[in-house]
Amino acid sequence: MYRSGLISIIIPVFNVRPYITEALESVIRQTYSHLEIIIIDDGSTDGSGIICDEFAGRDNRIKVVHQENRGLSCARNAGLEMMNGEAVAFLDPDDSYHPDYIKVMAEVMDREKTDIVVCRYTVQDAKKRTGNIRKDKTWPSIKTGMYGRTEALQALAAGKINVSVWNKLYRRRIWEGIRFPDGHNYEDMDIMFRVFDICESVLVLDRPLYYHLRRCGSITDTMSEANLRDLCLARRHFEEYVSVNTPAVFSFEQLNRARQATFNGMLVNYVRYSGKNSDLSADFLNNLRTQIIGKGETLGFGSMDIRRKTAYFMMLKCPGLLKVAYPVYHAVRMLIYETTGK
């Protein structure tokens, strides 16, 4: 495939004017040239769509569709409906590719006859952007190599392969019966296990070919009641999938870890957003607290590490103290991170 096959790249765009030029430049400068570049402008109001049209005027491989704002899932689904490539990749509009991203990924896919190729990625903080991508840390943590369906699903459950749809190249057939959940955020988390479920093999490369930008204002950085509800739903769907497939695919230990991950995520978000400056309603937070207590009782106090034991105990006995203690803890953690990077 890598010598001549058409590869589709789907780019959903919504109000990313400061970043979209770099993203598109990284695509049109790919050393693999037989590309179909599908841009779905999801109702941008900041001029992002105009920039996309300008790029389409420069490069006839680019197709731009302007639609009313319907969300990231709908934008990606629109791209999937249009694509003609033998394989497909996704790019978030504030991220960028290494110049050899498609070439390397496609060559490996062709040579190894695998369904999905995963590359490592680096993360850059938009607040500290200097034009240089950090090379000191790369993800995911899984070792390089070929993984069968069961091994890949287990690695996904363990967090060794990231749930993001970017930093991966997929054979077209993988997406023939799968679409992102309309109207929901955290759609990557809610779909990646379905994608891995139908693949036969996944190959992980050791090269950091995808550059991910972490920025304020992104979906994952903005926590509304709808976002938090979608996050909890996605985690619950994955936990249910692991439960249904235990012990056929997952061990009981892995199932327990999946349950703990759901609990930990709910607890962390409750602690983080239950402060007096939170935009989340008291009813929503009380409902979340009830769910956490129920799940904590099922898992047992002994399954938690010391930080979560402390947070859970404070949430149970003295939620008011937790609201005061968390900002102090967060400030200390951020100071440590800024100093050590850990």
H/I helix tally: 11
CATH architecture group name of the largest domain:
Alpha-Beta Complex
Radius of gyration: 21 Å
Task: Spell out the CATH superfamily of the largest domain.
Answer: Spore Coat Polysaccharide Biosynthesis Protein SpsA, Chain A
Q: In percent terms, what proportion of residues is strand? A: 15-25%
Number of strands: 9
What name does the CATH topology of the largest domain carry? Spore Coat Polysaccharide Biosynthesis Protein SpsA, Chain A
Largest sheet: 9 strands, mixed
Structural class: alpha/beta
Helix-strand sequence: EHEHEHEEHEEHEHEHHHHH
* Overall domain count: 2
Shape: globular
> How widely separated are the two ends?
41 Å
- Overall residue-averaged pLDDT value: 88
CATH class placement of the largest domain: Alpha Beta
* Low-pLDDT segments: 129-136
Portion in helices = 40-55%
